[in-house]
Amino acid sequence: MPRSTPARRSVARAALAATAVVVLSGGMLAACSPSAEDRRDQTIAAASSESATFTLSAPADVLVSEDVPTAMVPGAGMPVDVCRAEGATEPRPAVLAVHGGSWARGDKAHPHWRTICSWLAGEGFVGVSVNYRLAPEHPFPAGADDVAAAVAWAQSDAAEAYGIDPERTALLGGSAGGNLSALVALEAAAGEGRAGADPLDAVITLSSPFDLTVGSATSPTFEQSMLDYLDCAARDCERAAAASPQMLVGEDAPPFLVVHGMREQLIPVQQATAFIGALAAAGTPATRELIDSEAHSIGLLDDALAGRLSDWLRGMLVPAPAVEALDDSPLAAPLPAGAGSAAGALD
Questions:
Q1: Domain spans of the chain?
Q2: CATH for 64-317?
Q3: Separation CA 170–CA 181 (nearest Å)
C-alpha cells in the first residue's frame, strides 16, 4: 500500500473535518428545530393575555391584600388577591377576575391581572383576583372547583372583612378563565353550585370557549389544550360536555356580557355567537360586544371598552336610587270630597 503524502493527509483531514461539521450542524439544527407541540405552545403563549399589548388605566391608591385564603372547607380553594379603594366605608359588590392561559398557565398576580383588580377597585367594586389549579397536572374539574370556592368565599360573611357585600357578586373571566366563570355561574344558577357557590348577579367573558364538545368551532392550535384540560383523547368524551357552559344555559342564567374579537384566531368568534344565541333562546339577558379586532382576551380591554364594562357592571350590581314612597307624592293626596274616582270621572 503506497504511503500517504503530507498533501494527501491534509486533504483527508480537511474532508473529515468538513464531514464532521455537516454532521454536527445537522444534529444542532435538528435539536434546535421546534416540535409541533413546541410551536403550538409558542403560538398560544404569544396570543395569551399575559403577552397582550395592554393599555388599561388603573388607580394607584388601591389597597391590595395578597394571598387571602378562601377555603370554606379544609383543602378546598386557592388564595385570592383582594383590591379595594382606600377610604371606602360602605360594603361594595365583589367582581372576581379569573385569568386565562389555556387552563395551563397564568397567575392572579401577573401585572395585567393586578391592573384589572385595581381598576375594578377604582370603579366602585372590590376586585378579587382568582387562581385555580392548572392542567394538565390538574385537569377538569379542578379549575372549576377552585373558582367556585372563591365565589363561595366572596358570598360568605368572611368576605365582609375586606369590604365586600356578599349579596352582590359577579365574575369576569378572560379566555379559559371566561369558560370557568360561565360554567360556575350557570351551575350555581341551576342550583348545582360547586363548593357551595350561590347564584351570581352578572358574568363578563372575554374571548372565551363555551363549547368544548366535538363539532364546535375551534382552532387546531387550541385543540390539544382542550384535550389536556379535559384529560381526554378526543372531544367526544363525557367531560367535554360537562366542561361546556353552552350545555348548561337555562332560563335561570344570570345576565351575561360576552366580549369577543371578530377576527380572533385562537378562539373563533363562532364560540361567542353560538353562546349568545343559546342565551337568547333561553330568555336570558345577554349583551354582546363583538369588536373588529384580532386581539385576544384582555388584549381587547382598552379604556373605552373598560368604561362600557364598568357601566354594565354597575347596572347589574348597584341598586338604582330608591324611589320615594307613593304616599309622599302629591299624586297620592286624598281626593276632595265628592270628586269621585278617576274611573268615575271618565263615565
A1: 64-317
A2: 3.40.50.1820
A3: 9
Angle 217-219-224 (CA atoms, 0-180°, nearest 5)? 110
DSSP label at 84? Answer: E
Report residue 66 as a C-alpha cell: 395578597
Which H or E run contains 17?
A: helix 6-32
- Of 227-236, 292-301, 338-347, which range is least confident? 338-347
Grid cell of 67 as nine digits: 394571598
Q: Which residue has the higher pLDDT, 169 or 328?
A: 169
Give 131-145 pLDDT, tens digit per residue: 999 999 999 999 999
Q: Before 141, cis peptide (omega within 30)? A: yes
Average pLDDT over residues 47-54: 54
- Which single residue is written with the C-alpha cell 379549575? 143
Angle, nearest 10°, between helix axes 176-189 and 142-154? 60
Tens digit of each residue's pLDDT (9 = 90 or more) over 199-235 = 999 999 999 999 999 999 989 889 999 999 999 999 9
What does 151-178 look like in DSSP terms, one character per residue? HHHHTSGGGGGGTEEEEEEEEEEETHHH
